[in-house]
Specification:
Chain A is of the alpha+beta class. Chain A is 56% helix and 19% strand. The longest helix of chain B has 17 residues. Classes of the chains: A alpha+beta, B alpha/beta.
C-alpha cells in the first residue's frame, strides 16, 4: 500500500525518535549515576586524606571511643585485613526516616599507636538518587521538547519543499494530450524537482508531437481522399445520365452509389474527429441544448416515419451551455441518428432534457450492448451493421473535450444514452 | 451563360464540364492559378467555380483580384477543405456560395442556377417550366396560373428537379439536397420516396403533366415529354 510522502517522513521520524528515547534514556541514567558515584568516591578519598592529615596525628587509642562517639559518618573500627581504600555500597537503618538508606562507604587500614585499625567514612546516597531522577526527568523533558520542535520544523519544511511537487503533480493528473498548453509547471530551487519537471515536459512534448503528427496524418489523409471521392461521385453522376443503361448495370450503379456514400460518411467522420481534436477550444458560444434539438427534430421525425418510429420529447427546464455549437450539434445529431438506426420497426424514441442532463432513449435489440468498447473507434455491435462505428467515438470525444460525461444503460427494453453537462 | 471552372483536378473538371455543358452553359476551364488570373482579367463570367487549393496559388487571391478589378462575377467556392474559417474568409472576400467536395453535380448545377438568378433578378423572380410557375420570392407554385398548395420542402425539391431536367438524379443526391449535411450520414433514403410521391400527387391533382419519372435502380428524372 502506498502512503503519502509526508506521512512516510513523519512516520520514520517518529520511529527514530522513539528508538533514540529508548536507547538514550538508560545510557544517560547509567552514565550520570556513574559520574555521580565517581564524584562521591573522590569526596570520600578527600575525607579520608583530610582525616589522615589533620585528625590521625592527634588521635590516641585512649580517646578513640570518644572520637567514635562524636563522629557519625566517620568511624574507626577493629582491624581486619583489607586493601587500601576499599569502596562499597551498603545500607544503614535511618532513625529519622525509619527505613534503610543506601550509602557509599570507604574503608582503609590505619595505624594508631602500635595497633592497626580500620578507618571508615560514608556518604548517604539517599538524596543523590533523587537528584539523578530529577536530572533524568529534566533531560527527558528537554529531549521531548527538542524532538517535538524538530518534528514540527521538519514537517513545515517538508510541506514547503514538496508544495511545488504536489502542485505540479495535480497538473500532470489533469493533463490531456489534446490540450498541451495548459501545463504551467512551478519552478523551484530544488535541482531534482527541476530535473523531474524538465523530463516530464520533454516527455509530454514528444508525445504531443507524435499525437499531432498522427492527428495531422488522419486529417490530411481524409482531406486527400475528398478529391478522389469527388471524382468518383462525379463520374457516377455522369454515367447515370447514359440512356443505354441496362437493368443489371443500374443495379451495379446503385451499389456503387451506396459504397461511395459509405466511404464519404467514413471520411467525413474522420475529418470531424480530427477537427474536434484540433479546434477543441475554439469558437465557444453560449446557447441552449433545446434550440439544437428542436432544430434537428424536424429532420429526424421525417427519418423516423420510414421505420414508423414514434419520437417523443420531454423538455423540462433549460440547459445553458458554453461550447462549440457545431460540435454540440454533431453530438446531438449522432445520438439521435443512432437512436433511429439501431431502432426496430414501430419502435420508440424518447428525448429528455432536465437537470443538466440530455437523454436519448430508444427501443432496439433486446439486450444490453457490451459496453467496454462502446465508445471506441470502429467498434460495432455487429459486423452486418452499415454504420462505420465512428458516431459514438465522436460523441465521446466531444463529451471529453468539454468535460461533460456520458453514460449508457439498458433498462425496460430501452437503450439510453445520457449526457451530463 | 459563361462559366469559369478553376480546378486543378482534371478528372473532376471533365465531369463538371460534361454535366454543365449540356445545359445553357458554356464552361471554360482553368487548371492553374495563373491561367485563372488571365481569364478573369480578360473576360466576364456569369459564374466562377473556384477551388481554393491550386498548385500555384491560393484560390482566395482570385477573389481579392476580382474585387480589385471591380468585377461582379458570381463565385462559388468548391473546396475539399471545409473549416468555418475558410468559409467565413471566402464569404468576406466576396464569394457567393460554398460547396464542399465531394458533391453531386446536380447540386452544383442548382447552386449555379440559384446564384445566377440572384445576380440577374435580385432574387425576385419566377422559374417557369411549361405550365408550372414557381415564384421564388413569395414561395408559391402555380400550375396553369392556379395556385397549388405546397410545402417549402416540396418547392425546394421541385426547383431541384426542374433545374436538373432530363438528368437522372440518385436518391442519395436528392436526400443530400433536401437535408444538407445530415442526410449523408444516413444510410436510408426512403424519405425521398415519400417527398417525390407527395409532389407528384400534388402536381397531378393540379392537372400538370407527370414529368417525374422513376428510373429503375437509379432514382428519378424530370423529363419533358
Amino acid at each position: 500500500m502506498s502512503k503519502k510522502l509526508l506521512h512516510k517522513t513523519q512516520q520514520i521520524y517518529l520511529i527514530f525518535a522513539i528508538i533514540i528515547f529508548i536507547v538514550i534514556a538508560p545510557i544517560f541514567y547509567i552514565f550520570s549515576r556513574w559520574m555521580y558515584i565517581n564524584n562521591i568516591d573522590e569526596t570520600l578519598v578527600d575525607y579520608k586524606e583530610d582525616f589522615i592529615e589533620k585528625m590521625l596525628p592527634k588521635l590516641t587509642e585512649e580517646n578513640l571511643p570518644v572520637w567514635n562517639n562524636f563522629n557519625t559518618t566517620q568511624q574507626i573500627k577493629q582491624y581486619y585485613p583489607i586493601k587500601r581504600d576499599t569502596m562499597f555500597y551498603t545500607t544503614y537503618f535511618s532513625e529519622i526516616e525509619q527505613e534503610l538508606e543506601p550509602y557509599r562507604e570507604l574503608e582503609t587500614p590505619i595505624k594508631i599507636g602500635e595497633n592497626n585499625y580500620i578507618f571508615t567514612t560514608k556518604i548517604s546516597l539517599f538524596e543523590s538518587e533523587d537528584l539523578i531522577i530529577s536530572i533524568a526527568f529534566l533531560f527527558f523533558i528537554l529531549i521531548t521538547l527538542l524532538l517535538i520542535v524538530l518534528g514540527i520544523i521538519t514537517n513545515k519544511i517538508s510541506i514547503k519543499i514538496w508544495k511545488p511537487f504536489y502542485e505540479n503533480l495535480a497538473q500532470f493528473e489533469a493533463f490531456k494530450i489534446d490540450n498541451p498548453n495548459k501545463l504551467h509547471l512551478k519552478q523551484t530551487n530544488i535541482e531534482e524537482f527541476n530535473r523531474l519537471n524538465l523530463s516530464i515536459e520533454k516527455l509530454i512534448q514528444n508525445n504531443y508531437i507524435i499525437y499531432e503528427n498522427q492527428r495531422e496524418f488522419v486529417e490530411n489523409a481524409a482531406h486527400e481522399l475528398q478529391t478522389p471521392i469527388a471524382v468518383f461521385k462525379g463520374k457516377i453522376d455522369i454515367l447515370m445520365q447514359r440512356s443505354d443503361i441496362t437493368k443489371g448495370q443500374a443495379e451495379l450503379l446503385e451499389s456503387l452509389n451506396d459504397s461511395i456514400a459509405r466511404l464519404n460518411r467514413l471520411n467525413k467522420n474522420l475529418l470531424t474527429l480530427s477537427k474536434i481534436e484540433k479546434n477543441n477550444l475554439n469558437e465557444i458560444t453560449s446557447f441552449q441544448i433545446k434550440e439544437i434539438i428542436e432544430k434537428q427534430l424536424e429532420f429526424f421525425k421525417e427519418q423516423a416515419i420510414q421505420k414508423n418510429i414514434h419520437i417523443e420529447s420531454h423538455i423540462n427546464g433549460v440547459i445553458n451551455i458554453s461550447a462549440n455549437k457545431g460540435f454540440t450539434e454533431i453530438l446531438c445529431s449522432n445520438l439521435l441518428l443512432n437512436a433511429i438506426q439501431h431502432n426496430v420497426i414501430n419502435g420508440n424514441i424518447s428525448i429528455y432534457i432536465a437537470n443538466n442532463k440530455f437523454t436519448v432513449s430508444n427501443t432496439g435489440i433486446s439486450s444490453a450492448i457490451k459496453s467496454e468498447s462502446l465508445f471506441n473507434r470502429f467498434s460495432k455491435a455487429s459486423s452486418s451493421e452499415k454504420g462505420n462505428g465512428l458516431g459514438l467515438a465522436i460523441v465521446k470525444k466531444i463529451v471529453d473535450i468539454n468535460n461533460w460525461s456520458i453514460s449508457y444503460k439498458y433498462e425496460n427494453n430501452a437503450h439510453s444514452f445520457t449526457v451530463t453537462f | 451563360m459563361k462559366l469559369l471552372l478553376i480546378e486543378d483536378e482534371q478528372e473532376l473538371a471533365k465531369s463538371i464540364q460534361e454535366y454543365l455543358n449540356g445545359n445553357e452553359f458554356v464552361c471554360e476551364w482553368a487548371n492553374k492559378f495563373s491561367t485563372a488570373l488571365d481569364k478573369i482579367s480578360n473576360y466576364d463570367y456569369d459564374c466562377i467555380l473556384l477551388d481554393l487549393m491550386l498548385p500555384d496559388g491560393n484560390g482566395l487571391e482570385i477573389l481579392t483580384e476580382l474585387k480589385k478589378q471591380n468585377k461582379t462575377d458570381g463565385v462559388i467556392i468548391i473546396s475539399a477543405k471545409e473549416t468555418l474559417d475558410s468559409r467565413i474568409e471566402g464569404f468576406n472576400l466576396g464569394a457567393d456560395d460554398y460547396l464542399t467536395k465531394p458533391f453531386h453535380l446536380s447540386e452544383l448545377l442548382v447552386r449555379i442556377q440559384a446564384l445566377i438568378r440572384r445576380k440577374q433578378f435580385g432574387g425576385s423572380n419566377i422559374v417557369t417550366f411549361n405550365e408550372i410557375e414557381i415564384d421564388l420570392q413569395s414561395k408559391t407554385v402555380k400550375v396553369n396560373h392556379k395556385l397549388v398548395e405546397i410545402t417549402k420542402k416540396e418547392i425546394d425539391l421541385l426547383l431541384y428537379l426542374i433545374g436538373n431536367h432530363n438528368r437522372v438524379l440518385s436518391k442519395g443526391a436528392i436526400a443530400e439536397h433536401l437535408s444538407g449535411d445530415m442526410a449523408d450520414m444516413l444510410d436510408n433514403h426512403d424519405f425521398v420516396y415519400a417527398h417525390i410521391k407527395n409532389l407528384k400527387k400534388k402536381l397531378k391533382s393540379a392537372n400538370a403533366v407527370d414529368y417525374i419519372k422513376t428510373v429503375y435502380g437509379l432514382g428519378y428524372k424530370w423529363q419533358n415529354e
